[in-house]
Design brief:
heterodimer; A: 249 residues; alpha/beta; four-stranded antiparallel sheet; 10 strands; 25% strand; B: 406 residues; mainly alpha; MetI-like fold; 3 domains; 75% helix; 0% strand
Chain lengths: 249, 406
Amino acid sequence: MSENETAGEIIICQDVCKWFGDFQALKDCSLRVKAQEVVVIIGPSGSGKSTFIRCINRLEEHQAGDIIVDGIPLTRDVRNIEQIRSETGMVFQQFNLFPHLTVLENITLAPIQVRKMKKEEAQDTAMSLLNRVGIPEQADKHPGQLSGGQQQRVAIARSLAMSPKIMLFDEPTSALDPEMIKEVLDVMQELAESGMTMLVVTHEMGFAREVADRIVFMDAGEIVEVGTPEHFFTNAQHDRTKLFLSQIL
Amino acid sequence: MTSASDAQTDRSVLPITERYTLIGWLRRNLFSDAFNSILTLVALVFLFFVARNLLRWAFATAEWGVIPANFNLIMRGQYPATEAWRLWLVIYLLGAVVGVTWRLISGQFSGVARLLLTIPFFLMLIPFFSMGTRLNLFITAVASAAGYYIEGYLPIQRRGRAAVYFILAYLVIMLLLLRGFGADDGPMPPVSPILWGGLLLSLLLAFFGITLSFPLGVALALGRQSHLPAIRVMSVIYIEFIRGVPLISLLFMGQVMLQLFLPDGFPLVDRVLRALVAITLFSAAYTAENVRGGLQSIPRGQYEAAQALGLSAYQSTINIILPQALRAVIPVLVGQFISLFKDTTLVALVGIFDLLGIARTILANPDWLGTHQEVYAIIAVLFWIFSYSMSYASRRLERRLGVGVR
């Protein structure tokens, strides 16, 4: 544990494998993420990107290999899983806000229930987070009354309310109308600059180039190539990476 | 439905002389062509004869005297007349509960609540009521108003909790008043549920059947979705067994077999309670299936978001899943509760004097031979009033909860 922390590595994945029935979704995926690092995962659809980050907070269960988050090994032990989940925020493609609660209630629910925070304190935190993502005036609305971009920003605020050490983003802008993508990416960029450790699955190459410390390319369940943005966009090594980049750029 | 909306869109384009006139409406909706005109005329002739015969029966043939003469029996069965004041006290307090609830949700509910408050005054108009009954109804209205104003003095953030405590206290007080306690010659002698009857008993059976079967049904629905095989299998067996058996046979089983299941030395459960147990167990299985439908309508993303935030399974079920699932099934559940209310009439077959049972005893009385039509008509009207109120209230509730639904 101390060894990991001195190395500053907050997420360690070693030879992670995952099968859906006969189909192997992840093949020996290994990745180490340092604290405050922003890692962007790209790759064609069906390449296992989402599955990989969903393994990190156990929304999917990996069947072989080790995952250690902030020194806590991810095992079947429910206490470990709950601890990792409360330190790891996640933002989903479909926002997954709770439609029956107001924006403010969406954000304060987990701090009150899980962290046993006082209601007033949780609401103060929530309001300052809504200020941070730029929509304090929407606090008393229901999610259905907001635009997609606003909903996604609420979802980010909801995750941040748990003061996570790590944020996982699973295609956060893929369900958004084009004009709303920027407002979400701006919030994510601000978050990255504030020193949050982030693991982002996205197709936004501009964001990857500008914000990422490292880019991971996945294909067919494997991590094919890892490198800095310059390396990736100027000097990719593998044919599969070159093919993918040529298709999307 | 479509013709109504068509008519509405038509209005905006029709020349002004054609708008809003009765003739224009009739022509568009009832006499648009020859075939529709014939249909309209045939229907009118049919309705005329039905209405004429019905009215002739209601105002000329029917002997309504049977209703006032047996009114107390219809309302409260064999509940002793000397203890009837306890029932009025229960009704006063019910008025107060309505007042408190009205204040709590006024705004969205005020129209309905105003209607509720006028009910006692309308009832006071019923010709054969004694002055005492009218006075009691008036006190009920006063209690409603008092509940409304007293709740209004509380700070807004305390009102919800105060109302819940008041309603819970009401349930306890209601049971104490109905059942009585202490010695037989004391101030509040016990009245065995065997003596409860009529509308009183029908409403109580329905009310407790609903409130007891609801939590049991929700628990069974969750059990059926559980990851623990033992709980899942037990829930499935229970639900499928109960749903495969008619209520009447459960009622008979309750009467003759319930005592066998209870431990030795358990005090004898009275007839009414045995029926209530059967009704509750029956209704719970149906509630479970309806709630399961709601649970299945919740997208997986909701579970995942709750998990990702670190909520435990219990916390996410209580805060995220159930509120959405139950809201989705309100119409189905209310429909089920209305049919439960009507199904309570089956207890008449196991010798309990609910509304229908009382009707049978009245008709068996030589003084009132041959008054079947009048008695059954009144029983039907009473059931309709309560069933329709439930369905109306549920529509209001749906609309009120509709805010912010996806």
